[in-house]
Amino acid sequence: MKRFQERTQGLYWRQLCVTAGMVLLTLCLLGVSFFSLSYNYARSQQGEEIAAKARVMSQLSLSYLESGRYLDMEDLQDDLDFQRLASFAAIVSDVHFMICDTEGHVLLSTDKTLDGRTVTVPEERTAQILERGSASWRDDFGGLYPQKRFSVGVASINPVTAERAGEVVAVSTMASLDSMWQGFVGLFFMTAFVVLMIAFMASSVTAMRQVKPIREMVEATRQYAEGNFDIRMNDYGRSDEVGELALSFNAMAESLQQTERQRREFIANISHELKTPMTTIAGYTDAILDGAIPPENEKQYLQIISGESRRLSRLVRRMLDVSQLQAIDPLRSGAHFDLCESMRRVLISMEKKITDRELDVEADIPEGPILVLGDNDLITQVIYNLLENAAKFAYRGSALYLGLTLRDGRARVTVRNCGDTIPAGELPLLFERFHKSDKSRSEDKDGVGLGLYIVKTILEQHREKINVTSENGVTTFSFSLTTE
């Protein structure tokens, strides 16, 4: 039992981990896609904004570049108005501006960390800016910055002469991008944590709902193995596969319980049926051996012993017949036979018993053949058992009826006699194993109580049922067979 519980617990944790792992993997993939798209989008948006700011600054610095004052570094640095304008624009724009000549030398920078340093825009970037009018890239400017920054360069072009007076490079301060990026990361991880917790709790509840019925089935199976078939599964009001499995499990338990009940009843019945003749045989045999019976009476008691031995033999033979009947499928071959001929043969074989009972037989059997689906020998056995049972319990000198009619493509066989009325409560019991009424026990010393049970078994193998009614002393048995 402990091993079974460990296995079901392992199933619970495996399902829980698989579900949580799939959710986590999905979040990771979504996160990577989200970060990639958002980062590219942010860079694109920031690039456009920085390029627009650089173009404005290039127009503002055009007059200063064209005036030639930048040729004298001291004069350009002393131009406080331009410096204030550039610094103000940098503060408002949240970028740093580098005003460069046509060779890429930085003449003025709003980034105070570059004061006193000689900075030159890479030659290939300068050529690209002057040739195309603008360019964007990421660079640390030869180690001036601890990490690469997004930069946009715009050429300062005279709108009249279309000459390049220089260039303006706008460098991102990283603050806005980092702030937005941190906001994205924080929002994602918070959302991912909430989703993961919800998925974990939902998968935990789902896994427990699936594993709990399995644990109950394990316990129920152990009870069944010990012979306790009273345990039933709880379907928890579910209509899914687990609910269907619980219903099927309960149906199996009902079947096992019924089988066990029938087995015990069968053992009890057969013990009773075997005990009576065996007790009689043993008792009279011991009495003869002990000399308790006079010699002139020994033949009489030996005849009783012989009769009981034959009855015991018939009982065993009938039980073997029942066992064999339950293992065959008479409809598998799809063979047909003439039911009328079979009924006539049964009447002929029953002639002596009918004559001994002084019965008048009313046979309503069509002259032409009627072919039905089934096994000829087995159906003949059914008719013989019914007719023998009817003749046995019919009033002496009364009428016995055997008829065959056709209706809706089916052949209906009817056996009827006149005798004592069978109580309605006893009719369903007639086809049980070893069932015999009190009257049959008194008049039918040779019976073993399996004749009608064999009838029911054969007809069930043919997918058919037998009906019985008993009113006003008239008892009727009837069953149907499929015609060709």
What does this protein look like?
The chain has 484 residues and is of the alpha+beta class. It folds into 3 domains: 2-178, PAS domain (Beta-Lactamase, 2-Layer Sandwich); 241-325, Orthogonal Bundle (Helix Hairpins), CATH 1.10.287.130; 336-482, Histidine kinase-like ATPase, C-terminal domain (Heat Shock Protein 90, 2-Layer Sandwich). It contains 13 helices and 12 strands. It has helices spanning 2-60, 62-67, 73-78, 80-93, 123-132, 175-225, 241-290, 298-325, 339-349, 351-356, 376-393, 438-443, 451-461; strands at 95-100, 106-109, 134-139, 149-157, 164-172, 336-338, 360-364, 371-373, 399-407, 410-418, 466-471, 474-482. The strands form 3 sheets. Strands 2-1-5-4-3 form a 5-stranded antiparallel beta sheet, with helices on both faces. A 5-stranded mixed beta sheet has the order 7-9-10-12-11, with helices on one face. Helix 6 (175-225) runs parallel beside helix 7 (241-290) and helix 7 (241-290) runs antiparallel to helix 8 (298-325). The longest helix is centred in the first third of the chain and has 59 residues, at 2-60. The radius of gyration is 53 Å and the shape is rod-shaped. The model is unreliable at 4-8 and 438-445 (pLDDT under 50).
